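Long-time lurker, first post.

We've been arguing in lab meeting about whether magnesium ion would sit comfortably in this protein at all. Half the group thinks yes, half thinks no, and nobody has a model to point at. So I'm putting the question to the forum: if I give you the sequence and the SMILES, can you give me back a predicted structure of the complex? Inputs are below. Any interpretation is welcome too.
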Amino acid sequence: MTTTTPTVPIGTTSLEPDVRRGLYRTMVLIRTYEEAIRREYYADKGPGFDIGKGLVPGEMHLSAGQEPVAAGICAHLTADDAVTATHRPHHLAIAHGVDLDAMTAEIFGRETGLGHGRGGHMHLFDPATHFSCSGIIAEGYPPALGQAFAFARRGSDRVAVAVTGEGAANQGAFHESLNLAALWHLPVVFVVEDNDWGISVPRSASTSVPSNAARAAAYGIPGVRVEDNAVEGVWAAAQTAVARARAGEGPSLVEVHTLRLWGHFEGDAQGYRPDLEGVAGRDPLPTYRAALEADGVLGPTEAETIARAASDRVEAAIAAAKAAPLPDPAHATDYVFA
Amino acid sequence: MTTTTPTVPIGTTSLEPDVRRGLYRTMVLIRTYEEAIRREYYADKGPGFDIGKGLVPGEMHLSAGQEPVAAGICAHLTADDAVTATHRPHHLAIAHGVDLDAMTAEIFGRETGLGHGRGGHMHLFDPATHFSCSGIIAEGYPPALGQAFAFARRGSDRVAVAVTGEGAANQGAFHESLNLAALWHLPVVFVVEDNDWGISVPRSASTSVPSNAARAAAYGIPGVRVEDNAVEGVWAAAQTAVARARAGEGPSLVEVHTLRLWGHFEGDAQGYRPDLEGVAGRDPLPTYRAALEADGVLGPTEAETIARAASDRVEAAIAAAKAAPLPDPAHATDYVFA
Amino acid sequence: MTTTQEPVAEQAHGTHRMTTAKAVAEGIATEMRRDPSVVYLGEDVGAYGGIFGATGGLLDEFGPSRIIDTPISETAFIGLGIGAAVEGMRPIVEVMFTDFMGVCLDQIYNHMAKIHYESGGNVSVPMVVTMAAGGGYSDAEQHSQCLWGTLAHLPGMKVVVPSNPYDAKGLMISAIRDDGPVVYVFHKGVMGLAWMARNDRAVGDVPDEAYTVPIGKAAVCREGKDVTLVTISRSVHHALDVAERLADEDVSVEVIDLRSLVPLDRPAILASVAKTGRLVVVDEDYQSFGMSGEVVATVTDVDPHLLHAPALRVANPDTPVAYARTLEQAILPMPDRIEAAVRRVLAT
Amino acid sequence: MTTTQEPVAEQAHGTHRMTTAKAVAEGIATEMRRDPSVVYLGEDVGAYGGIFGATGGLLDEFGPSRIIDTPISETAFIGLGIGAAVEGMRPIVEVMFTDFMGVCLDQIYNHMAKIHYESGGNVSVPMVVTMAAGGGYSDAEQHSQCLWGTLAHLPGMKVVVPSNPYDAKGLMISAIRDDGPVVYVFHKGVMGLAWMARNDRAVGDVPDEAYTVPIGKAAVCREGKDVTLVTISRSVHHALDVAERLADEDVSVEVIDLRSLVPLDRPAILASVAKTGRLVVVDEDYQSFGMSGEVVATVTDVDPHLLHAPALRVANPDTPVAYARTLEQAILPMPDRIEAAVRRVLAT
Ligand SMILES: Cc1ncc(C[n+]2csc(CCOP(=O)(O)OP(=O)(O)O)c2C)c(N)n1
Ligand SMILES: Cc1ncc(C[n+]2csc(CCOP(=O)(O)OP(=O)(O)O)c2C)c(N)n1
Ligand SMILES: [Mg+2]
Ligand SMILES: [Mg+2]
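Top reply:
Settle the argument with this. Predicted structure of the protein with magnesium ion, as tokens:
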């Protein structure tokens, strides 16, 4: 296992300015999206808070703070590569290029959504970008193996990226998937988003070792842990892992020490969280923006321009979703069988 | 991970002669038992071979060749310690001191059996020695955690030994159990019997690393692999692991490279097994007997005496089982609820 | 709500009003005070108090050595519960949603539920597995299932499903004291959670003291003579709503809350259908191969002629529970569908 | 055995006699030759040829890149099948015994079976999961279950259960060609294995060519007018034996082989019961909350008065399958219990 802590001292990164700007743009789009969804989520839950009410009912797991993972990993992928995500999927969907309108319509439960409103925010399926997710802990890993298996069979160099949280890494599916992928040299990149928490349970109360990257050795595959939620560190680690997979050399594990900026789901008061005060100060977005501005990668007004573009895009998607038709209950039992 | 290959050069072992004699006696009793069960199993299956026929119907997984594991581990246990075994449980049951008459009656499906004939050879439950087993791969590990948990709660120094095969180590329950036991410092000794095969699948086609002992590091616990099916090596490794558990220092993993002397189950022609020819020559029993005789630990006729005592004990158990009553079908639905 | 349940009170005291969630926690606390071998294990059961409030406040009273947060390793920690139970403890283990049982069902049905039988009665597994069930708040396909039919099909474990605070506390105490495994399923919609749609039937008077509700005895929550509505948990509330509404039209609906699927109170079903001659089964689980068929077969096992009309089933139509509310409400057995079924069965 | 099944033959050729196990393998081989995207994954499916012979000989023809031995990691390799199917392959994945589904059921019911629905029909999962079921040879509690009722309760996957060589091949081809997930359960007792009790009904004539048996269509394997025996798989053989025996006494038993539980051929059940007025359901799965109740409710959904007598259920009595033969034979729905039920239902 290698632990990398690329704190990106100003002016020392080897990354192209375009790449860096791209990472920042993706991160901003994600954050803008999550803030907007959060706003819409709470908009109509009152009086009080009724989880079943509003235009976006149900559980809502937002990814604010985890943008570096999605941006850094997906920068190496094309729409031909697969990504399987978890109950907290928006950042990965956006970074992987899932159509924002169709995704938003799905989150709003509309007929125009990715799943015609059937799936909602934990079940986003996009054949165009081979994106999927699942609300069952760690159980999104195994299907990624099959996508990789199919890709390899066809002699392509396509890869499958499988993502879970650090809490999920203690589920049996994690172990089985790593062993099988390693055994068959499948082109998979396993990503663990270590945001320190599995709902209210800290890593120290769920995981017997400090890093899941160390567990890669149990399968004979490379494992790397990126510290400090560093987007460029993720980018570099993913570059290696994706290249290895594309070259047919088998899977790797990339763990990122990231940050759950908000609650586990919306409505989570986080009374259990002693680190709550320091959380805002660890927000990766202002840090990265400052670094890019200091390096001159972002000009004086560029961040504002990026923010405005992101906001326009997101608001357009939300407006379109709100205007879209609701699914017809007469068709509630469609799609059970193919 | 440590790999130990204690080939026990003549005269160099530090083990007491009594201990060595005890190990040998246990191994002989196990082998004698398995040979007798094998005989009884086939006795009435014909013409041809009908698995459902005879005094001992159903699947039969015998442990010949794996005596060193059972003898070496259980030498450190008392009846207050727990052992959970697999579909291949006889050697561990015998070494742990499960009553041979009750166990045999169970295998013969008699009312006097451990489970009144309900469980059969894969479901031996003995409250007196806290012995149990399960026919579901790796799923015998988790209950051992609970036994250890209960032991620790009561402030005792009792331990639970959980056994699986190397094939089973790729099942999710293996991973979850090791992590949880390590996290909570439970007094468990995890044992992996690596007999090279999971039915017809060799270790190289099931496991992405050469040794499961190496996987212990993924949980921050000690892992040791004993090579060469060496009973004294098992004894030594188990001594350390059991002592650690008794001292409240948490679990360990002991893998033993052992030998499946016969088929996966009786009736298995093993056509898939390229190493078949060499197998008989790797039988641990004659080797150990020779070593003990050369060291003078066993006198000239002692091995014969031990063999005869074992045979008498086993045949008495079998005779008693055959004479015992069959369960009354009118009580087939008893014991569903406590 | 009129219930025929007879509390087996240990001591008569007063009562207090509380939600079902609080009643569950109180049942657990009552037994934990009495029996040091009771522990509660699961994800987010400690500081969080359980995602659906089943363990609210327990960490404060009993501390982290008895109210224990686990890793997300259901197979390992249910198995741990089994082993602890085998050694004489009385663990309660929480699977956060019934939906998740697929990752750990082997421990539940091949181990927890079978050890007593396999051992010929020599080993007992006195443990409780709790699970939250049900939909109605747009939690979609993987977080809205009931699956109690799945559990009830598998032998060796009791399956209890309370619908109100009184039963919740009494059944929890019974479950903990049972010498065998009990799966205790609570529908999220009966818990009276502040963050869900208000439900007045999720609040009720609960005796202060310890009491048991017998496992396997249904409650006739409303007596009637025209039609029998057999149901469980959240659907009991809907059934009572429908019964009240139809009473204005002089339709007399008998509502039976099964309270447990295993054992199933067949005499209660038969007695009611013998009286009314008409049966509607309401079940938020999938319709086919589940509770609704079993309740009907309970009647035809004995005498199909007790039924003067088709036995109608109002259940989830063998379709995953969709996210969008328009779809979800069409899939769940909501009051309008129940009412329509009652009208139809009365018209036959 | 008279069957009403109509083969949808692609081309008329001859037939050859074979066991059900060989017919399963032949169905797989037929499709593998035609469609390179078909692969078969599971434990001991390669050199061993499948513990119950379902893949005998396939490794020789198709090699280890298509007949693939897996580690004992059911969750991982079923999930692998799902992902491969999503990407357009047609994997067949074997879970060695239905009993083991508890270690991997999440992939089966929360993923394989739901993705099509969750994606609003945009993603298809054309895969087959095979499983061996059933008892009768003293393999005890963890290796003798049927559990097809468990599978059939969970929406989104078809569940087929052949009883003879003809159906086994035709249903396998249909299952592979189906654009959605199909669970293909075979009872060990119908496979015609050399190492099990001889069963003449496990051998039969099978067309040489590819043909499909439609999924969801029951077979009337024996026409009769006095009583309807509805059953599946191994119990079909017992039912036919009983029917033959009773024919000597001029009792005319109609035997329906459901062939699939999902979809369930409800019209076939109704038509037969409408004719005979008497129903016995035989099921080697656990009795309660399973197939037997669903078959009965199929009738009462429409008209309980079709039944002129109690609908009797001959199934495993909600008890684990014991090891000792005396007990096991008392638990399984053997011919004597079936015959007794037929006599009882005729006497009412
Ligand atoms: C098998 C299973 N068990 C439990 C849950 C409930 N659950 C949903 S998210 C979560 C915590 C996940 O933690 P982690 O993997 O670290 O991901 P994060 O939420 O931090 O992104 C839990 C326990 C589940 N969805 N599936
Ligand atoms: C979950 C599960 N999957 C598959 C099986 C079938 N099975 C029984 S034994 C066995 C091989 C076990 O190999 P290993 O763990 O190495 O133990 P060994 O038989 O070599 O002692 C398999 C696949 C099972 N019992 N349980
Ligand atoms: Mg986390
Ligand atoms: Mg092995």
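For your lab meeting: Chain A touches chain C through 50 residues (CB under 8 Å). The first strand of chain A starts at residue 2 and ends at 4. Whichever side wins, do check it experimentally.
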